[in-house]
Write a structure and sequence with these properties.
heterodimer; A: 282 residues; alpha+beta; Alpha-Beta Plaits; four-stranded antiparallel sheet; 4 strands; 71% helix; B: 234 residues; alpha/beta; Rossmann fold; 8 helices; globular; binds adenosine-5'-triphosphate; binds magnesium ion
Chain lengths: 282, 234
């Protein structure tokens, strides 16, 4: 293996520009994943807090009997998505509004606010789609005057998160593709530069795996360096954002290690994809 | 050691290089392969070290058959062979000992066994004093000895030599040929392609003659058949 490792590092000396380019594209690929991943991660953390408070409020129409309301409440409580149903009387609603609004509490007169059934959903059923589905089902009940749910900004947050995730994946994959291409041409140069050696290795009975291994190690090392560079870039961006824009959370250690490992894998795959093809031609 | 059975080899642009060639080389033999340029000598040797596969027929070398090759059979076979060429094929940017050590290293020899083995090989080919020289600092004959040392690195049972003296003068030719004879005397089978008919005549070894891709003369078969050696065809 020492020979393979030595040869792998010779690759850097032989084509420094392409090597640096390979490392940088891998870094940009992972940086794109990292940056948008960070956005998605933080939105998710925010959403997790918001989701705890997600509830659907079905306002009870005037003139609905108490029996009808409690039958409906029992009915709704049996929905698989529903955790609890609370009946809030008109007076309680007023009390709550007063508390929320503090000094403006005077503006409310008893009877202005309707009674409602407040429906809490089980964890895992608090995403916009499910909330909407349950709300729509509540609307079909006769007692329901109006159904309110999920403030629109929850949906906005979800949309931002999805866009960030998608943008990260698209940009990351684009850079990964470029990285694979550049690694491919690096390998081509390295194979050509070593054509004589490779021919002699074959002649004396070196296995294909042995001949391939320096190129794969080369790729994995470049990928790891790219991963570390991406980590540094992401960290700097994160620090700037935390300092000047908003406090946020960073990836945990496991994700950081996974990110650098992803770089190694990307470099390795980039090499593996092209090395056999180019070796066939020498 | 080598058995060709009705071997045909065709190349896309140049057509048939070998046509239904059959012969057998036993363990321990020294065999010359002769014939005019383009007759197919190098092609036969390439088939022997599986650098080429026959289009029809079967090549068996040192227990490996061309019709049943799997996985690492080719490298495994090559570790049992030594191959040398007219143009030496040394790595110019490495010393003599590094060139020989390379062959050991890439076939997975233990690191601490390499240096003593290289020293022994260099002594065997008479180049112990040139271990740290670069190929460009050696004469043609010396370079070919380095190539032979490299070919012997894995203790081959068969040495395949494609015009090993083609680039050498008379004296160097005799030296290299004597080295090959010594290796043969120690038990290694040798097949050597050559243009040098003087050498062939003087050596009195079995000779296979090719012409236009066909085997036209086999002195071994001729002797077995009781035919006079001088008559050259079919
Ligand atoms: N790789 C190849 N591609 C196409 N044709 C080839 C190839 N190798 C050999 N040939 C053809 O096969 C025929 C035999 O070639 P070969 O090299 O075996 O001849 P040779 O007897 O070794 O000649 P020489 O004495 O000049 O070395 C030639 O006609 C040559 O053009
Ligand atoms: Mg030839």
């Amino acid at each position: 293996m020492s020979l393979a490792t030595r040869e792998a590092f010779n690759g850097f000396r032989r084509s420094p520009v392409l090597s640096v380019l390979s490392i940088m594209t891998i870094a940009f690929s992972l940086y794109a994943f990292g940056l948008f991943g960070l956005v998605a991660l933080n939105i998710r953390a925010a959403l997790a807090q918001v989701e705890d408070r997600v509830e659907i409020r079905a306002f009870v129409a005037d003139g609905t009997t108490a029996e009808a309301t409690s039958t409906a409440a029992g009915d709704i409580g049996a929905f698989p998505e529903v955790q609890s149903v609370t009946f809030v009387t008109s007076e309680e609603a007023l009390e709550r509004a007063r508390k929320d609004l503090g000094e403006f509490s005077d503006v409310f007169e008893a009877g202005i606010l309707p009674a409602s059934l407040d429906v809490q959903l089980k964890p895992g059923f608090r995403d916009p789609a499910t909330v909407k589905a349950v709300a729509d089902r509540l609307k079909t009940y006769d007692f329901a005057d109006d159904v309110r749910y999920g403030e629109e900004w929850v949906q906005k947050l979800y949309r931002i998160r999805n866009i960030a995730t998608l943008a990260g994946i698209v940009l990351g994959l684009a850079f990964a593709g470029v990285a694979v291409i550049i690694i491919g041409s690096t390998i081509r140069m390295a194979v050509l530069a070593r054509a004589r050696e490779i021919a002699i290795m074959r002649l004396v009975g070196a296995t294909d795996g042995f001949i391939r291994s320096p190129f794969l190690i080369d790729g994995a090392v470049k990928g790891t360096l790219g991963g570390v560079l991406a980590l540094a870039l992401t960290w700097v961006s994160f620090s700037l954002i935390t300092r000047f824009v908003i406090t946020a959370q960073f990836f945990d250690v496991r994700l950081v290690i996974a990110g650098v490992a992803a770089g190694a894998v990307l470099g390795f795959i980039g090499s593996a994809l092209s090395v056999s093809r180019h070796l066939r031609n020498v | 050691m080598i058995r060709f059975t009705r071997v045909t080899k065709e190349f896309p642009r140049t057509g048939v290089a070998l046509r239904e060639v059959s012969f057998h080389v036993a363990r321990g033999e020294f065999v010359f392969l002769t014939g005019p340029s383009g007759a197919g000598k190098s092609t036969i040797l390439k088939l022997c070290y599986l650098d080429a596969r026959p289009d029809a027929g079967e090549v068996r070398v040192a227990g490996t058959s061309s019709v049943a090759i799997r996985g690492n059979d080719v490298p495994k076979l090559r570790r049992k062979l030594g191959v040398i060429f007219q143009n030496f094929r040394l790595l110019e940017d490495r010393t003599v000992e590094a060139n020989i050590g390379f062959a050991l290293e890439v076939t997975g020899a233990p690191a601490d066994s390499i240096a003593p083995k290289v020293a022994r090989l260099l002594t065997q080919v008479g180049l112990a004093s040139k271990a740290t020289a670069f190929p460009s600092e050696l004469s043609g004959g010396e370079q070919q000895r380095v190539a032979i040392a490299r070919a012997l690195a894995n203790d081959p049972v068969l040495v395949i030599a494609d015009e090993p003296t083609g680039n050498l003068d008379e004296r160097a030719t005799r030296g290299v040929f004597q080295l090959l004879r010594d290796i043969n005397a120690a038990g290694t089978t040798i097949v050597m392609a050559t243009h040098d008919l003087d050498l062939v005549k003087r050596a009195n070894c079995r000779t296979l003659e090719l012409n236009h891709g066909s085997l036209v003369f086999d002195s071994g078969a001729a002797m077995l058949a009781g035919a006079p050696l001088a008559e050259g065809s079919t």
